[in-house]
From TrEMBL:
Species, as recorded: Phyllostomus discolor (pale spear-nosed bat)
Signal peptide: 1-24
Gene that this polypeptide is encoded by: LRRC19
Localization annotation: Membrane
Protein name, UniProt field: Leucine-rich repeat-containing protein 19
Function: Pathogen-recognition receptor which mediates the activation of TRAF2- and TRAF6 NF-kappa-B signaling pathways and induces the expression of pro-inflammatory cytokines. In kidney, prevents infection by uropathogenic bacteria by inducing the production of cytokines, chemokines and antimicrobial substances. In gut, involved in host-microbiota interactions, plays a critical role in promoting the recruitment of immune cells and intestinal inflammation.
């Protein structure tokens, strides 16, 4: 009797669950806008849409498109196949908390910002195939707590670290130029130890080095140097830091290219102007020093000194022995260039034939007389 009463008691709850499922199936709204040549996501779509297909258009998924997407918060599937998406900006799908399938294949995506997938807590399938992704920081997948399928087929990646996806069941990585060096060892260990299935494993092979081209990234043999020289945790941390720095640098350079017309000149221009001003000022000082040698004449005036006693006697003897020295003195041409014998020497010849030394004390002469 008790066993028969239990199903009767829970029967209303089962009926409510069935009615809810029927309501959700009945309220499923599909909107197909493929090949409409749209450049923007239209705003006049039914607000209750759950499956939206905007494939084969010209949508770039810019800030205006992301703001329009916030209106359709009931979306469970979104298809943007073969559009003109280049960058996945932060919070591009922030209000789509019910989204389960997101397909952005066959675009030109090469930059995925750190918070591009914030808000997609229920997302189960993510398709990023056939894009131009070169570097991918695995931390962008952190908000995807329930992701089960990740498709990164046919991109331009040579390395990817193990993504922090604990519920992932299937990953597709073929069509990328994988570099099977020691840096890929961490990914290989994750593929071999986790429950993740690598689809198309036989064709997911190494592109270089040449000696490993025939190996799958899951079975490529690594030598002992990869384990001994670079321990796995240290190697992974170093490469993650390198990836984050390079990704941020790449994003900032891309931002500078796109917004170069609106940004003020940076510090490099200030440094360049300072160098140019310094060079000009130095050249001007050198020019003034060469063309205006007043300072040279000023210093030259301090080179004269009085003749000492023994210098006077030797100079006097030389002058008496070589009277022709006066003939070697050039003729006066102008008052400015005339140099007299009296200006060159500190003594002069008197009429009495004696040399008057103005440094001899007159009192001593009187005493001698």
């Amino acid at each position: 009797m008790k066993t028969t009463c239990i199903p009767i008691l829970f029967w209303p709850f089962f009926m409510l669950l069935l009615s809810d499922e029927s309501k959700t199936s009945k309220t499923e709204v599909k909107c197909n806008f493929t090949e409409k040549n749209y450049s923007f996501i239209p705003e006049d779509i039914n607000k209750n849409v759950t499956i939206l297909d905007l494939s084969y258009n010209q949508i770039t998924l810019n800030t205006m498109d992301t703001s329009v997407l916030q209106i359709y918060y009931l979306l469970t599937e979104l298809y943007l196949i073969e559009n003109n998406v280049v960058i996945l900006h932060n919070n591009s799908f922030g209000n789509l908390s019910n989204l389960k399938i997101l397909n952005i294949c066959r675009n030109s995506i090469y930059v995925i910002q750190q918070g591009a997938f914030i808000g997609l807590n229920k997302l189960k399938q993510l398709y990023l195939c056939q894009n131009k992704i070169v570097q991918l920081n695995p931390n962008i997948f952190v908000p995807l707590k329930n992701l089960k399928l990740l498709n990164l087929q046919d991109n331009m990646m040579s390395y990817i670290d193990r993504p922090p996806l604990f519920h992932l069941e299937l990953i597709i990585l073929d069509g990328n130029p994988w570099n099977c060096s020691c840096t890929l060892l961490n990914l290989q260990n994750w593929l071999n130890t986790s429950n993740v299935t690598l689809e198309n494993e036989n064709i997911t092979t190494c592109s270089y080095p040449d000696i490993l081209k025939c190996y799958s990234i899951k079975t490529v043999p690594y030598n002992t140097d990869c384990y001994s020289t670079f321990p796995l945790p240290v190697m992974a941390d170093l490469y993650i830091n390198f990836q984050s720095i390079s990704n941020s640098t790449f994003n900032s350079s891309l931002k500078n290219l796109t917004n170069s017309e609106h940004e003020p000149p940076g510090k490099s221009w200030t440094f360049l102007v300072g160098v140019v001003v310094t060079v000009l000022m130095t050249s001007l000082l050198i020019f003034i020093a060469i063309k205006c040698p007043i300072w040279y004449n000023f210093l030259l005036s301090y080179n004269h000194h009085r003749l000492e006693e023994h210098e006077e006697e030797t100079y006097e003897d030389d002058f008496i022995e070589n009277p022709s020295a006066l003939s070697q003195i050039p003729d006066p041409i102008s008052e400015d260039t005339t140099v007299t014998f009296e200006q060159l020497n500190s003594f002069a010849v008197d009429d009495d034939g004696f040399i008057e030394d103005k440094y001899i004390d007159t009192h001593e002469l009187c005493e001698e007389n």
